[in-house]
Amino acid sequence: EHHSNIVPWQLLRERTGVEIDVCPLTEDGKIDLDAAEAILTPAHKLVAFAHISNVLGSVLDAKRAAKMAHAVGAKLLLDGCQAVPHMAVDVAALDCDFYVFSAHKLYGPTGIGALWARYQTLEAMPPWHGGGAMIDRVSFERTTYAPPPARFEAGTPAIVEVIALAAAIDYVEAIGLDVIHAHEQALVRETRDALRRMNSVRLFGPEDAAGIVIVGPRYDLPPASAQLLGDYWAKDGRIMVLLDPAAETPLLREFLASAGITPLDDRVLRTVELGFVTGIVRDVVGTFSAVNRVTRRLQGAEALLPGATCSLVLDEKKEGTLVEPLITADEPFWGEKDHVTDENKGVVFDAGADTAAPLVVAAMAERGGVADEKVDVGSARLVVVGNSEFVSDGIVTEPNLDFGLNALNWMLDRGHLAGIAPKTVRAFSLNLTDLETGRIALYTLVLIPAAAALAGIVVWWRRRR
């Protein structure tokens, strides 16, 4: 809902003590009129809904909303800011009591808008602003007010802006609101159909959204992928999963639980003293497990997991599954349950609520595998759980690259290794003279391409003959 249909009622509540009831949404993002009908009582005096949602583009069944409001003696106000540029509006047909919209949403000037209301309702209302042009007769003893709508238009009006708004209305009507609405609906359908085929995004709002398509990254698995992941785990798959703990991932978390790994609802962090303030560090520096066969070669090396990382609980007694940590974070890191986002707020470890170190931040689960160096390829399944940023950012460091390759080796057939990390982590460098560097450039940029071109010419010539 737009703030303009929230904050004014809260200000009214502070002044008069009125109560505000909030109507929920349906699963596809429409105002739930069934729930609203259950909420409404004769104590309600005003129902205020968006005709078209400012966020999701969902269109209100305004006629039903008016019928429901009037059934309990309440009046209906419709926020039409998103509706007037997208569709034809007939306030009489909608049977609302108030209708408002802003000029700039209709391609007009900023700073002004319009209120339509039933004449008898305006006639019964007192003025809200005093000044010139809103009066009938004025004396020091008594003032009478002009009839609506002048009663509510005190002072010199926004003449230039109103003329510009009229021009904007003429422009839209010349195109035709029915034409605009049909064109936008076609664009929405085409866009949603194209995006729906992408597994990496999630669509919000109803299918008939008016001119708005809201897209967010799909962190969770599509249902079909979740089923496929479960099938791999139950049969012969070897799977690597990177988990972003800030995402809503119920299907992925359900699968991980079946593998003996439970992500906690926390964020691993530490604090550092920066002069007079305390800073929050969310980039987690962990250590690779010295006993796990995926990471034992990296003993003594550090793993960097950028961004918000959650801690994991491992069910090491899960029947038929070998669950082991891959990376752990020691003190001064801990798992913060409050999800602090304000760097100036400050945060301290709460022994009663937070997760204490050592923290498991990456783990493996193997179903039907063995604990020694000999791995049964037909039964090894690997799940590596970490931060989604681990690959894109952290993987560029040498230890993280070694870790990634080792993990891939466990997922691939043992006869097709992606690469084997050295037993000890050490720096690697080449010292070349200018002459040697020039020779490499000559071979790479001239001789090799020339040889390939010559071979191509020979093949072409032979085919011509």
Q: Could you give the order of the helices and strands?
A: HHEHEHEEHEEHHEEHHEEEEEEEEEHHH
Radius of gyration, in angstroms, nearest whole number: 33 Å
Number of strands: 17
Helix content: 25-40%
Question: Strands of the biggest beta sheet: in what spatial order?
Answer: 1-2-3-4
The coarse silhouette is extended
User: Main beta sheet: strand number and arrangement?
Assistant: 4 strands, mixed
- Which residues sit in consecutive blocks of at least 5 with pLDDT less than 50? 369-396, 409-428
Structural category is alpha+beta
The overall pLDDT average reads: 77
- Beta content comes to 15-25%
**Helix count, DSSP H or I runs of 4 or more residues:** 12
End-to-end CA span? 75 Å
Give descriptors for this structure.
four-stranded mixed β-sheet; 17 strands; alpha+beta; 465 residues; extended
Write the layout of secondary structure elements.
Blueprint: H1 7-16, H2 33-39, E1 46-50, H3 62-71, E2 75-79, H4 91-94, E3 98-102, E4 113-117, H5 119-123, E5 135-138, E6 143-145, H6 159-175, H7 177-196, E7 201-204, E8 214-217, H8 223-234, H9 250-258, E9 261-263, E10 267-274, E11 277-281, E12 284-288, E13 302-305, E14 312-314, E15 321-329, E16 334-336, E17 359-367, H10 389-392, H11 398-411, H12 434-464
Parallel strand pairs: 1-2, 2-3
Antiparallel strand pairs: 3-4, 5-6, 7-8, 9-14, 10-11, 10-16, 12-13, 12-15, 15-17
